[in-house]
Design a protein that fits this description.
Blueprint (H helix, E strand, L loop, with lengths): L3 E13 L5 E12 L3 E5 L6 H8 L15 E2 L2 E2 L6 E11 L2 E2 L5 H7 L7 E2 L14 H17 L3 E5 L2 H7 L2 E6 L2 E7 H6 L4 H9 L18 E16 L4 E17 L3 E5 L6 H8 L9 E8 L2 E2 L5 H8 L2 E4 L13 H12 L5 H14 L16 H13 L5 E5 L7 H18 L2 E6 L2 H7 L2 E6 L2 E7 H6 L4 H8 L2 E2 L7 E2 L41 E2 L5 E2 L7 H5 L1
Parallel strand pairs: 3-9, 3-10, 8-9, 14-19, 14-20, 17-18, 18-19
Antiparallel strand pairs: 1-2, 1-6, 4-5, 6-7, 10-11, 12-13, 12-15, 15-16, 20-21, 21-25, 22-23, 24-25
Bound molecules: iron/sulfur cluster.
C-alpha cells in the first residue's frame, strides 16, 4: 500500500455567525495516500467545503476585509457567511503538522504542495463538465500527472458520476462527520450507511422512468417552433456599427406535444437557454434580431403584440435554474404566487385568489404556513417549489424548465423531478426541459432534441436518442456518462469517444457541419455543406452526412 501523504486526525472546525456556533467539521479522520484520488461527497452544508478550507487554513474570518472577493477555485471565500475556527485536531502533510505552521510557511504550501478542485456545478466548473467529455479530458490530464509525480488529489463534490470516474476511495460526509469511507468499488457496489443508500436511491438513474415510453400515434404538437433564429449584434466604434453577430440560435425547429416532455440537451453555450427565452418572447426589445415561427396552438406568438401577446403568454411559463435569484426576496410567498394572478386578472376576488394560493402550495408540497414567509426562510428545494407554484398560478399549458434541478442536492433533485412528473400527470402539462443531465432526460423526458452551436442535430424519442444515438455528437456525449446503478460498480455504457477542442464560437461557426472540427467521423464533404435532415424513423431525425438525407432521397 502506498505511503500516507496527508493525514487528518480529529479535525474540528467551528463556524461562528450571528446565532449559536455550528460545528461544521466534527472530528473527521482522513488519510490520503501518495498517488491517490480521495473524494469527499455530501450535500450542501454537510461540511465538505469547510473541511477543504480547514486543511488549507483558509477559513473565513470576520471583520477583516471590507469588500472584494477572494476566490479559491471559483468559490468566493469572503462570501461565506460565518467566521471559521479550527478547534482541535491535526493535519499532517508528510508528517508536518500544517496547523502548527506560521502563516508565511503555510502560504508556501498552498498552491505549491496542496491544490484543490471544487466540483460544484454552479460555481467553479461549467455545468457541462458533468456531461462528460471535458471532465474526461481534465480527468485524463490529472491521472497522467498523478502517475508521473505521485500526486494525490482531494476531490470535493456532490456528483457521484464524477466520483465514479475519478476516485480511488470515497468518504461520505453528513452533518460534519464522515459516516462512511470505502474503496470506490465497495462504495458503489455495497454502500453501508443508510444516508449513502439514500443518496444512491435518489439518483435519477436509480428511479424507474416517470413517464410512459409508449408512443402511440404521434400526438399533435402544442408548441411548434420553426426556423427560430436569435442573433445578438456585436457593435463597435463611435457609431456602434454592427460588426458581427453572435448566432446564439441559428435555425431551430422543434415540437412539444400536449402532455409530454421534450428535453433540450447540449453543452453550456450551445444556445438552449436562449431558445427557451425566445419562444416565451422574453428577448423582445433587448437588441436581439429574432426571426422564425413560434406556433402555440395555431397562433404565431412572434406576430402577437401587447394585450394579445400577454393573454396568450400566460399559457407558457418558465422555471429557472436558480431558485435564489428568481424570487423577489422582499415579497412574501403569497404575494409571489399571487402576482401573476393579479396581473392577468385570474380569480374574481382577493379571497378566491388567496384560497388558490393555499391550493397551489399544497399541490407543490408546501404547507399553507409558507404563505406568510419570505424566500430566504426556505431551502433551495423549497424555493424551487415556490417557483413552480408561481408558474402554475396562471394555469399554463407549457412550462419551460431551465435546468431546474442542477443547483440542488441529489436527494432534493429527485423530489423536484417527482413533483414535476406528478404535476404533468395531474394537469396534463407539457414541459420543455432544458438540461445537461442525461440521467434526468432518461427519467423525465418523452422526447429529446440535441443542440450543438445554435442548431438541433438530432431529435427522437428518449428511447431512440438515449438508447441508440445516431449523431456523432450525441454518441460522444452519451459515451462519457457513467451509468451508476445502485449495488453495482459504475461503468460506461460505451467506449468513451474523445472530442477534440472546445465548442467553437457562435460568432464565427465552422463551415459546413458545425461539428466537423471535433467530429471523430468527419469526412471531406462535412466541411463544405451543412447536412440536411435525415429521417431515420417516424420520430428520429438527424443532421449528419453519414446518413442519406431526405433531400437526396427525393432527387
Ligand atoms: Fe461528423 Fe460529418 Fe456527421 Fe458532421 S456531418 S457529424 S462532421 S460525420
Amino acid at each position: 500500500m502506498a505511503e500516507t501523504l496527508l493525514k487528518v486526525e480529529g479535525l474540528r472546525t467551528v463556524l461562528e455567525g450571528a446565532g449559536e456556533p455550528v460545528r461544521a467539521v466534527d472530528g473527521i479522520e482522513i488519510d490520503i495516500r501518495r498517488g491517490e484520488t480521495f473524494a469527499i461527497v455530501g450535500e450542501s452544508g454537510c461540511g465538505k467545503s469547510m473541511t477543504a478550507l480547514s486543511l488549507l487554513r483558509l477559513l473565513p474570518e470576520t471583520g477583516r476585509i471590507a469588500d472584494g472577493t477572494v476566490e479559491l477555485s471559483g468559490v468566493d471565500l469572503l462570501g461565506l457567511p460565518e467566521a471559521g475556527r479550527i478547534e482541535s485536531g491535526s493535519v499532517r502533510l508528510e508528517g508536518k503538522d500544517l496547523l502548527a505552521l506560521p502563516e508565511s510557511a503555510m502560504r508556501d504550501i498552498r498552491g505549491r504542495r496542496i491544490a484543490m478542485i471544487f466540483q460544484e456545478p454552479a460555481t467553479s466548473l461549467n455545468p457541462v463538465l458533468t456531461i462528460g467529455h471535458q471532465i474526461g479530458e481534465v480527468l485524463e490530464l490529472l491521472k497522467k500527472l498523478q502517475a508521473e509525480r505521485g500526486m494525490s488529489m482531494l476531490l470535493i463534490t456532490h456528483d457521484l458520476g464524477i466520483v465514479s470516474g475519478m476516485a480511488h476511495r470515497v468518504a461520505v460526509m453528513y452533518a460534519g462527520k464522515i459516516v462512511e469511507a470505502a474503496e470506490r468499488s465497495t462504495f458503489f457496489s455495497a454502500p453501508q450507511h443508510p444516508y449513502t443508500k439514500k443518496l444512491f436511491a435518489s439518483l435519477p438513474e436509480a428511479l424507474p422512468p416517470a413517464v410512459s415510453r409508449q408512443v402511440s400515434a404521434p400526438p399533435a404538437p402544442l408548441l411548434s417552433v420553426g426556423d427560430l433564429k436569435v442573433h445578438f449584434p456585436i457593435r463597435k466604434g463611435l457609431f456602434k456599427r454592427t460588426v458581427a453577430h453572435v448566432r446564439a440560435v441559428d435555425g431551430v425547429s422543434l415540437e412539444v406535444a400536449a402532455g409530454r416532455t421534450l428535453a433540450l440537451v447540449g453543452e453550456s453555450g450551445c444556445g438552449k437557454t436562449t431558445v427557451g427565452k425566445a419562444l416565451l418572447q422574453l428577448l423582445r426589445g433587448q437588441g436581439a434580431e429574432i426571426a422564425g415561427q413560434v406556433m402555440f396552438e395555431g397562433t404565431d406568438l412572434m406576430k402577437l403584440q401587447g394585450e394579445a401577446l400577454r393573454a396568450r403568454r400566460r399559457e407558457l411559463q418558465i422555471v429557472f435554474q436558480d431558485p435564489y435569484s428568481s424570487l423577489n426576496p422582499r415579497m412574501r410567498v403569497s404575494d409571489i404566487v399571487m402576482e401573476g394572478m393579479n396581473t392577468l386578472g385570474i380569480g374574481n376576488t382577493p379571497a378566491t385568489r388567496s384560497k388558490r394560493v393555499d391550493e397551489l402550495l399544497g399541490q407543490v408540497g408546501l404547507s399553507p404556513e409558507a404563505r406568510g414567509r419570505y424566500p430566504h426562510e426556505f431551502s433551495g428545494g423549497q424555493r424551487q417549489r415556490i417557483a413552480i407554484a408561481r408558474a402554475l398560478a396562471v394555469e399554463p399549458r407549457l412550462i419551460v424548465c431551465d435546468e431546474p434541478t442542477s443547483a440542488l442536492d441529489v436527494s432534493v433533485q429527485a423530489q423536484i423531478l417527482d413533483l414535476l412528473a406528478k404535476l404533468q400527470k395531474e394537469l396534463g402539462l407539457s414541459y420543455l426541459f432544458i438540461t445537461h443531465n442525461l440521467a434526468v432526460v432518461d427519467y423525465l423526458a418523452h422526447d429529446v432534441a440535441v443542440m450543438y452551436l445554435g442548431r438541433i442535430v438530432e431529435t427522437g424519442t428518449t428511447k431512440e436518442v438515449i438508447g441508440s444515438p445516431k449523431h456523432p455528437y450525441t454518441q460522444a456525449l452519451l459515451s462519457a456518462v457513467p451509468r451508476i446503478q445502485p449495488g453495482a460498480e459504475p461503468k460506461l455504457a460505451r467506449p468513451v469517444i474523445r472530442l477534440e477542442g472546445e465548442l467553437p464560437s457562435p460568432v464565427n461557426p465552422p463551415s459546413g457541419c458545425h461539428f466537423h472540427p471535433r467530429c471523430p467521423k468527419a469526412m471531406p464533404e462535412c466541411s463544405e455543406k451543412y447536412p440536411g435532415v435525415s429521417t431515420l424513423s417516424p420520430t428520429q431525425k438527424v443532421r449528419c452526412w453519414l446518413y442519406p438525407s431526405d433531400e437526396g432521397a427525393k432527387e
